[in-house]
Write a structure and sequence with these properties.
CATH topology of chain A: Tetrahydropterin Synthase, Chain A
Strand content of chain B: 25-35%
Pfam families (chain B): PTPS
Helix content of chain B: 25-40%
Radius of gyration of chain B: 19 Å
Number of domains of chain B: 1
Oligomer: heterodimer
CATH superfamily of chain B: 6-pyruvoyl tetrahydropterin synthase/QueD
Largest interface: A-B, 36 and 31 residues
Largest sheet of chain B: 5 strands, mixed
Distance between the termini of chain A: 30 Å
Catalytic activity (chain B): 7,8-dihydroneopterin 3'-triphosphate + H2O = 6-carboxy-5,6,7,8-tetrahydropterin + triphosphate + acetaldehyde + 2 H(+)
Strand order of the largest sheet of chain A: 3-1-2-4-5
Distance between the termini of chain B: 27 Å
CATH class of chain A: Alpha Beta
CATH architecture of chain A: 2-Layer Sandwich
Helix content of chain A: 25-40%
CATH architecture of chain B: 2-Layer Sandwich
Enzyme class (chain B): lyase
CATH topology of chain B: Tetrahydropterin Synthase, Chain A
Number of helices of chain A: 4
Family (chain B): Belongs to the PTPS family. QueD subfamily.
CATH class of chain B: Alpha Beta
Strand content of chain A: 25-35%
GO biological process, one term (chain B): tetrahydrobiopterin biosynthetic process
Radius of gyration of chain A: 17 Å
Order of helices and strands of chain B: EHEHEHEEH
Strand order of the largest sheet of chain B: 3-1-2-4-5
Structural class of chain B: alpha+beta
Number of strands of chain A: 5
Chain lengths: 139, 155
């Protein structure tokens, strides 16, 4: 099996806030990320898929097709949007880097022809990233 | 489908979170068990008597269930505070060879990675999956604890 990774970028606004908590508790846990006016990042997404090399085309997946899937499923939904207000999955989940990686996995899983999704890596900035491999806890 | 991309899930997703820290330090590769000639032969320019320095990058990977309330593997504020106290304040702008942890061991980046792993194993809020230490942009080292290969553990 060969793994292939494609990058994409999107720029979005967000803030961290739990409605069940007081403002003080939100600020204690989330610090400056709790500022309700929001802030933003240039996110880098790395999607790794695995599959067998097609003997005729030499491809695991058609890169143009993978790029189009990333554009349609993720970038067109997230780019230049406010994640809390404009992306449906973050109405019920805080748009942390971890949750963004999980949400992108769920958006892409099963949608890539001839290849299996292996890893979703989301960089919020060059020094901070989250990886999700589709793993769930046992219970 | 996207409207329910995260909910409802019965099982908790397990994610890993990686954070990079930077510090600058000097060192000299030299073993007391070798004579001068052998040190020179084994360590080359890294054995130059007055030492040299690097901008090190330490990448810490923590793995665990994403907390349903906070959406986090662990709170970055806690991790940064831990790194500041236990990594940066100990190593930044020091000569590694003068530190206790390198009193008996050569200050190679392999040994530094092992020391960093020991430090972050005691981080109380999430499980350490592995550490990655870059000495220069061309040299980097990975350690995930005794008996585990970095790749398996990071996954």
């Amino acid at each position: 099996m060969i793994f292939l990774t494609r990058k994409a970028e999107f720029s979005s606004a967000h803030f961290y806030w739990n409605d069940a908590w007081s403002q003080q508790e939100n600020e204690r846990v989330f610090g400056k990320c709790a500022n309700r006016n929001g802030h933003g990042h240039n996110y880098t997404l790395e999607v790794t898929v695995g599959g067998e090399v097609d003997p005729v085309s030499g491809f695991v997946v058609d890169l143009k097709e993978l790029k189009d899937i990333l554009e349609r499923e993720v970038v067109s939904v997230y780019d230049h949007r406010h994640l809390n207000f404009e992306v449906p999955e973050f109405k019920s989940a805080i748009p942390t880097t971890e949750n963004i990686a999980i949400a992108i996995w769920n958006r892409l899983d099963g949608k890539i022809p001839n290849a299996k999704l292996q890893r979703v890596r989301v960089y919020e900035m060059p020094d901070l990233f989250a990886d999700y491999y589709g793993e769930l806890s046992a219970d | 489908m996207p409207t329910d991309a995260l909910t409802p899930v019965k099982k908790t997703p397990i994610a890993s979170l990686s954070r990079r820290y930077h510090f600058s330090a000097s060192h000299r590769l030299h073993s007391e068990q070798y004579d001068e000639g052998r040190n020179r032969e084994v360590f080359g320019k890294c054995n130059n008597p007055h030492g040299h320095g690097h901008n090190y990058v330490v990448q810490i990977t923590l793995k665990g269930p994403v907390d349903a309330v906070t959406g986090m593997v662990c709170n970055l504020g806690d991790l940064d505070a831990f790194a500041r106290t236990n990594l940066l304040e100990r190593f930044d702008h020091t000569n590694l060879n003068t530190l206790d942890c390198f009193a008996e061991r050569v200050s190679t980046t392999e040994n530094l990675a092992i020391e960093v792993h020991t430090i972050f194993e005691s981080f109380p809020f999430a499980r350490l999956a592995g550490v990655h230490v870059e000495e220069t942009s061309n040299n980097s080292f990975d350690y995930a604890g005794e008996g585990s290969t970095p790749l398996e553990s990071m996954r």
